[in-house]
């Protein structure tokens, strides 16, 4: 899965630091400072230009925040990804009112056990606290309703809550937590992407949302596909590593491009005749006995379809004669097939 919060950092200014005792030199008029992977324990050797709009401190050894950051009134993006900061270390952020215009705050991969107080950031667009030890979403109710992207993956969260006010939210990432129920997302009417992989969810409940384009429920406890019927804008659906035995509820998803049903208990290919935009169909590691009827099922998507993945099914060892004889779609020799 792509990581929007982990995009390539902007070009770094001209920095020189041969050892820990040397001062890092840079242009004091710089607006972007990238100190990624410098292994810094503190910022004592670093000049912080007051003009900074972006400060990237990814992959260092910081256990506290330099108080000089509090004066960077033009700062829009602050990343402390992959450091050693804990709850006490980030607490001063809630009092640094000069940073009220911050738009992106990344605290991914640290030692947090709770959602930090981000209430002063009234223009926040991206908030990332993934890969921590957070045990509840308490505190999100104080985060600005301007938020567009929220990442809380790889924590210990058992319940979706305190997100009702995020009417502008487009991406919600809660993968690798302890969630059992899809709930409290009905107000997220602008949500485009919902990532809930590696949880304990048993059934689909999208609470009436219809505009979502990407959904991941990989590695959960689903036994049924019911619940996606109204997601007519859906383009990518990832359901691998569940216990789904039947493909159903797909006929209305006419915009679907990617369907990942790998590692389930599916015995046949059904309900995909209307998916004329389908490009990737992942069915590996299921219990599909025969390819009979598959050519008709994918006939409508023959101009788009590039991948049919059937490895580790009973039918995979019986040849591809059914598809090869079909006049409705290219033979499997002609069709790019991932194996």
From TrEMBL:
Region (Disordered): 1-22
InterPro entries: Leu-rich_rpt, Leu-rich_rpt_4, Leu-rich_rpt_typical-subtyp, LRR_dom_sf, SDS22/Internalin_LRR
Database matches in SMART domains: LRR_SD22, LRR_TYP
Keyword Transmembrane included in the entry's annotation: no
Keyword annotations from UniProtKB, A to Z: Leucine-rich repeat, Repeat
Domain of life: Eukaryota
Pfam family, one: LRR_4
Signal sequence interval, chain numbering: none
Cross-referenced PANTHER family: LEUCINE-RICH REPEAT AND IQ DOMAIN-CONTAINING PROTEIN 1-RELATED, LEUCINE-RICH REPEAT-CONTAINING PROTEIN 9
Identification of the protein by name: Protein phosphatase 1 regulatory subunit pprA
Organism: Ficus carica (Common fig)
Lineage: Eukaryota, Viridiplantae, Streptophyta, Embryophyta, Tracheophyta
């Amino acid at each position: 899965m792509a990581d929007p919060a982990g995009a390539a950092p902007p070009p770094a200014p001209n920095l020189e630091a041969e050892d820990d005792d040397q001062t890092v030199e840079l242009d004091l008029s710089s607006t972007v400072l990238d100190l990624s992977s410098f292994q810094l324990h503190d910022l004592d050797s670093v000049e912080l230009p007051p003009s900074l709009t972006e400060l990237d401190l990814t992959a260092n050894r910081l256990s506290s925040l330099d108080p000089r950051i509090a004066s960077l009134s033009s700062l829009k993006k602050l990343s402390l990804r992959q450091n050693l900061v804990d709850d006490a270390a980030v607490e001063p952020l809630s009092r640094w009112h000069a940073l009220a215009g911050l738009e992106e705050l990344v605290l991914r991969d640290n030692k947090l056990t709770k959602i930090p107080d981000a209430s002063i950031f009234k223009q926040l667009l991206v908030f990332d606290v993934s890969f921590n030890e957070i045990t509840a979403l308490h505190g999100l109710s104080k985060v600005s309703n301007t938020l567009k992207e929220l990442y809380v993956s790889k924590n210990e969260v058992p319940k979706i809550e305190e997100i009702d006010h995020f009417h502008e939210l487009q991406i919600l990432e809660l993968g690798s937590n302890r969630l059992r129920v899809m709930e409290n997302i009905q107000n997220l009417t602008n949500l485009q992407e919902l990532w809930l992989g590696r949880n304990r969810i048993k059934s689909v409940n999208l609470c009436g949302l219809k505009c979502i384009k990407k959904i991941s429920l990989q590695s959960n406890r689903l036994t049924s596909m019911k619940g996606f019927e109204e997601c007519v804008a859906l383009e990518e659906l990832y359901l691998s590593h569940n216990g789904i035995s039947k493909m159903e509820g797909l006929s209305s998803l006419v915009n679907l491009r990617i369907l990942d049903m790998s590692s389930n208990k599916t015995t046949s290919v059904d309900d995909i005749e209307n998916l004329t935009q389908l490009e990737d169909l992942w069915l590996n590691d299921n219990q599909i006995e025969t390819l009979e009827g598959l050519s008709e099922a994918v006939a409508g998507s023959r101009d788009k379809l590039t991948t049919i993945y059937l490895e580790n099914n009973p039918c995979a060892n019986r040849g591809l004669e059914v598809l090869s004889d079909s006049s409705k779609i290219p033979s499997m020799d002609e069709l790019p097939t991932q194996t």
